[in-house]
From TrEMBL:
Protein name: L-2-hydroxyglutarate oxidase LhgO
Transmembrane intervals: none
Keyword tags: FAD, Flavoprotein, Oxidoreductase
Matching Pfam families: DAO
UniProt xrefs under InterPro entries: FAD-dep_OxRdtase (IPR006076), FAD/NAD-bd_sf (IPR036188)
Similarity remark: Belongs to the L2HGDH family.
Cofactor: FAD
Highest taxon of source: Bacteria
Domain FAD dependent oxidoreductase: 8-369
Length: 371
């Protein structure tokens, strides 16, 4: 029989959300250990995304995604500025190239305002081209508070503050099973370590549904089905002529399919296009099919006719940890505490896809309130 080690709070998953949660708990004087199954922090969803700081424009008003994105954006910019984490508030243009897209631009501004984002500006074609001369559009919306962040630098900063406050991250530590016990949860890792925690936060991202399913004493009805939506990115060879992020305006009938092929920039000024949406069966299906790039050219040339032939290379793919299937409306974040599942000390985080990076500090505050 292995010895059971006591720890006040266990967090599963050392992505940006798990690290933000662990840091927030540690700063409140809690003893915190993070269990990460991979060899390093942030190797899954947190390092395979657009690194965009989202404004909070598209999410349904009143949803957790809307609330936590807007709160998280403000907290994230302040955090990065105070700690020297690389970021840039470069702004984003949402561009219309069809009559239906153009007609929908005012409703985008209205929805954003309902979410507390009141700095969007409606631009005519010439105003948009004055900002980005290589852009082709009928009109656009400018989102000045959208930006980009060095996600790995952010995670290293969160880890550093967690450790400074006495917390620790343990890699190569995968949860095998857990059970509800008196005063918390008992957790067993694959290597045989046994831990008993008063608070257990499941921030396992792509593995969150699997982790929840292995908790004896948690009713199965509280564990959603995991779905995986892969997003492939293609990188641009050469320097892009843009200084803003460029997003196509959503087509009114394309609400299930993501936001079109958008152009994002990294902090070095390089451009990438994507992500697209490809529903797959496995979380580790991360190969980029070069043939998918063929469809990117036509999409991008709607707003950048000057995209050179042969200039897109397969970049990388990310995986969205979804809890809705391909023909269902996008699910909200699911932050599940004792009031839902009746297990004291357990907080499950499901479906933390975009805008999870932007929302991470606000999600952490919400979890602390439940812990």
């Amino acid at each position: 029989m292995s010895m059971v080690e006591q720890v006040d709070a266990l967090v599963v998953g050392a992505g940006v959300v798990g690290l933000a949660v662990a840091r927030a708990l540690a700063l409140r004087g809690r003893e915190v250990m993070v269990l990460e199954r991979a060899a390093d922090i942030g190797t899954e969803t947190s390092s395979r995304n657009s690194e965009v700081v989202h404004a909070g424009i598209y999410y349904p008003p009143g949803s957790l995604k809307a609330q936590l994105c807007v709160q998280g954006k403000q907290a994230l910019y302040a955090y990065c500025a105070e700690r020297g984490v690389a970021h840039r508030r470069c702004g984003k243009l949402i561009v219309a190239n069809t009559a239906s897209q153009l007609a929908a631009l005012p409703s985008i501004i209205e929805r954003a305002r309902a979410n507390g984002v009141d700095d969007l500006q409606l631009l005519g074609r010439e105003e948009a081209r004055a900002l980005e001369p290589d852009l082709e559009c009928l009109g656009a919306v400018l989102s000045p508070s959208t930006g980009i962040v060095d996600s790995h630098g952010l995670m290293l900063s969160l880890q550093g503050e967690l450790e400074h406050a006495g917390g620790m991250v343990v890699c190569h530590a995968e949860v095998a099973r857990a059970q509800v016990v008196e005063g918390g949860l008992e957790v067993h890792t694959l290597d045989g370590t046994a831990l008993r925690a008063r608070t257990f936060v499941n921030a396992a991202g792509l593995g969150a549904c699997d982790v929840a399913a292995c908790i004896q004493g948690l009713a199965a009805e509280h564990v959603p089905k995991a779905w995986f939506a892969k997003g492939s990115y293609f990188t641009l060879s050469g320097r892009p002529p843009f200084s803003h992020l460029i997003y196509p305006a959503p087509e009114p009938d394309r609400h299930l399919a993501g936001l079109g092929v958008h152009l994002t920039l990294d902090l070095g000024g390089q451009a990438k296009f994507g992500p697209d949406v490809q529903w797959v069966d496995a979380a580790d299906d991360l190969e980029v099919d070069p043939a998918r790039g063929d469809g990117f050219y036509a999409e991008v040339r709607r707003y950048w006719p000057g995209l050179p032939d042969g200039s897109l290379q397969p970049g990388y793919a990310g995986m969205r940890p979804k809890i809705n299937g391909p023909h269902e409306p996008a699910a909200d974040f699911l932050i599940q505490g004792v009031e839902v599942h009746r297990v004291p000390g357990l907080v499950n985080l499901f479906g933390i896809e975009s805008p999870g990076l932007t929302s991470s500090l606000a999600i952490a505050d919400r979890v602390v309130a439940l812990s």
